[in-house]
Amino acid sequence: SQQGEEDPQALSIQEGENATMNCSYKTSINNLQWYRQNSGRGLVHLILIRSNEREKHSGRLRVTLDTSKKSSSLLITASRAADTASYFCATDAGGAQKLVFGQGTRLTINP
Amino acid sequence: ETGVTQSPTHLIKTRGQQVTLRCSSQSGHNTVSWYQQALGQGPQFIFQYYREEENGRGNFPPRFSGLQFPNYSSELNVNALELDDSALYLCASSLPAGQETQYFGPGTRLLVL
Q: Of B77, B87, B59, which Cα lies nearest the Cα of B22?
């Protein structure tokens, strides 16, 4: 079964707007990662945040982690059509490098 | 591109058959993990191989088995295929524990009829 839940399941916004996706998980973790998947192909690693970190930035990406609420959010600023993809959070709840994924958020950026 | 390759890209089998999927890890990565992703779902961990030994297994039956070779490439074998085995199978390579980022291949899409 999946470790976490992602919200929303689908998100459609206009190009240039910001997109926010949320992830909740159930057990304690050492780190949480976000991956992107285009058209049902391989996953691409976006960013990793450790349990002792609250916020992390990478380019147009901003990730937050609240371990007390067991939740994380991914913000994509100034969205582009190329950001259209499914986004997954993954935790190490299964053990080191044994990732446990959420069900993902399908993001559509409309031109 | 991550440098992880998988073959074949697509495969069609019938129920009861056996299938072998292959993965070549990124150069220098000695750990390979396999995931199953059903349509519309997130990937689920099948098992992991480290230095040719199984190093953890998810909630999958024994008919899912694997191998890792001295060059760190890997195979996933599924016996007695069932309709529910239809999915995208992803392999991911990584460095040993302490390097949490995994590098995924493009996947093999398996359809069981």
A: B77
Cross-chain residue pair B33–A43, CB shorter than 8 Å: no
The CA distance from B3 to the nearest CA of chain A, in Å, is 11
* pLDDT given for residue A39 in this prediction: 84
Is the model's pLDDT at B26 over the cut of 90?
A: no
Which residue's structure tokens are 């582009």? A80
SS3 of A6-34: the string is EECCEEEEECCCCEEEEEECCCCCCEEEE
DSSP letter string, B70-102? TTS-EEEEE-S--GGG-EEEEEEEE-STT----
B100 vs A contacts (CB less than 8 Å): 31, 33, 48, 92, 96-97
Give, in degrees to the nearest 5, the angle at Cα B64 between B61 and B65: 125
pLDDT band at A96 (very low <50, low <70, confident <90, very high): low
- Compute the nearest-CA separation of B69 from chain A (Å): 19
Q: Where are the beta strands (DSSP E) in A1-111?
A: 5-7, 10-14, 19-24, 31-37, 43-50, 55-58, 61-66, 71-76, 85-91, 100-101, 105-110
8 Å CB contact of A94 and B58: yes
